[in-house]
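Run BTB domain-containing protein through structure prediction, thanks.
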Amino acid sequence: MAVQPTTLALDTLADAARRDEAPPKKLRPGWSQLRRAVLDGCSLQMAVVVLPPSDAAAILDTALRLDNNLGAALPAIGPMLDGDFTDVAVTAGGRTFRAHRVVLAATSPVFKSMLVGAMRGAREAAVELVGADAGVVELLLRHMYGCAIEVPASLALQLYALADQYQLAGELKQRLRLWLMALPLAPEALFEL
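Sure, done. The structure for BTB domain-containing protein is below.
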């Protein structure tokens, strides 16, 4: 039996958070974080597609599109990832990404502390992210550069963990958390993630 996906607009949830209404049952575990994010000025600019729990394969094919407001402020910075004037090499999973210390330091206090000090005099810095998936690091870096990214459900948890580990500024973690909470994951899908 095919079940049609239902789209739930998060605008109504944001309105409910502003009015301090009781949350829907499914969102009660994360309601305080959602409400705090809305009251702090975060906007919810996504829709959640609710799929039947038995459709684990379809859930893992789901992707979240995240637009970063930095791209509007500095539209020319996104293409500079792996481009001109790079001064740091970020290595993960056998791949090396060329980046700019100033971008990494501005968006992550962890990167800032890694890049200041011992590497101050070095013309070229190198950072290795041990145990990190190259695809996840690429998504993280593209987000740090203000690019819109499409996050497959299969990488969302890893991206959340990496953004948390590097204390990324902005709302990436909040939006990933809300999206992951809204996905009706079956127990077998959790092993895939």
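The beta strands are 6-9, 47-50, 63-66, 88-92, 95-99, 125-128, 149-152.
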